[in-house]
Amino acid sequence: MQHLQVQPDQAGMRLDRWFRSLFPHISHIQLVKLLRKGQIRVDGGRAKSSLRLEAWQMIRVPPLATPDQSKHRVKQEKRAVPPHLQDMMLKSVIYEDADVIALNKPSGLAVQGGSKTDWHVDALLDVLSDKGERPRLVHRLDRDTSGVMLLAKHRKAASSLTKAFAERETRKTYWALVHGVPRPEQGDIKLKLVKRAAGDGNERVRPAEDTDKEAMKAITRFNVVARAGQIFSWVAFMPITGRTHQIRAHALAIGHPLVGDNKYSLPEIEAGGELPNKLHLHARMIDMPHPSGGRLTVAADLQAHMAESWNLLGFEPDDYEDAFPGEES
């Protein structure tokens, strides 16, 4: 059996569509038969093909790979990782113990592969193998979001971390640079979100009406940390829910999109001038139950492009105090 986790960008998909995207060689009739026999289960229970999936649900799937696919996987795993990427991965490690590895993921590095992605975190995990055991992904960050990303060093740790993410026992803080100054300067953004096709043929996440059956509950807590006049603000965000592009879509919805966000922007807002034209969103800190007991708290320094912007605007990362003291996600 294999256990696959629903990623945030897959939330809201029907189970049958999710399954076809991963196992295109399995017919719908075969899928229905597997579901009817209980061989495919969602969070341990039986499910229908029409089930709408939620982020971090665990789906049990029996062995289905064809011989060709198995050969392809082995071939991919044996690709030689270029030295500069090996060096990048090793330098990205900011914390490690017997159960967990924490990376400061660079902006621009995808977590998993796609049609236009050659190298990504998942393809580079062998670089961090410990005694032959390959680290496991337990959550994701967007390609252009930098910051703390956790890996499990073994199956038991993966199960523990995955459970904590699924049950929202994690406390995550993101730093962002936004256009303008949000008013009020702190609060909760409570806007349901839904994926819809945009004019360029790609999907965008946008606010949805309560009556929209595909709408997903989304809550983002925010606090303005510092201002550069009325032009830019350093904002700390704490996502209470974990929807795809949630912070970016919510920031746009309140009229203060993230600097460098070419996907969720307003036409009347000009680019950041001298600031680097890259997404200014950084997973600064994560606090959650440690697989071996106690708490796991990891913080990641700003990546180069955001550190440059902070310097230009006179923001001091070392002066930061917890924007959400005593709060739990």
TrEMBL record:
<comment type="function">
    <text>Responsible for synthesis of pseudouridine from uracil.</text>
</comment>
<dbReference type="GO" id="GO:0003723">
    <property type="term" value="F:RNA binding"/>
</dbReference>
<dbReference type="GO" id="GO:0160140">
    <property type="term" value="F:23S rRNA pseudouridine(1911/1915/1917) synthase activity"/>
</dbReference>
<comment type="similarity">
    <text>Belongs to the pseudouridine synthase RluA family.</text>
</comment>
<dbReference type="InterPro" id="IPR020103">
    <property type="entry name" value="PsdUridine_synth_cat_dom_sf"/>
</dbReference>
<dbReference type="InterPro" id="IPR006224">
    <property type="entry name" value="PsdUridine_synth_RluA-like_CS"/>
</dbReference>
<keyword id="KW-0694">RNA-binding</keyword>
<dbReference type="InterPro" id="IPR036986">
    <property type="entry name" value="S4_RNA-bd_sf"/>
</dbReference>
<keyword id="KW-0413">Isomerase</keyword>
<dbReference type="InterPro" id="IPR050188">
    <property type="entry name" value="RluA_PseudoU_synthase"/>
</dbReference>
<protein>
    <recommendedName>
        <fullName>Pseudouridine synthase</fullName>
        <ecNumber>5.4.99.-</ecNumber>
    </recommendedName>
</protein>
<dbReference type="InterPro" id="IPR006145">
    <property type="entry name" value="PsdUridine_synth_RsuA/RluA"/>
</dbReference>
<dbReference type="InterPro" id="IPR006225">
    <property type="entry name" value="PsdUridine_synth_RluC/D"/>
</dbReference>
<dbReference type="Pfam" id="PF00849">
    <property type="entry name" value="PseudoU_synth_2"/>
</dbReference>
<dbReference type="GO" id="GO:0000455">
    <property type="term" value="P:enzyme-directed rRNA pseudouridine synthesis"/>
</dbReference>
<feature type="active site">
    <location>
        <position position="142"/>
    </location>
</feature>
<feature type="domain" description="Pseudouridine synthase RsuA/RluA-like">
    <location>
        <begin position="99"/>
        <end position="251"/>
    </location>
</feature>
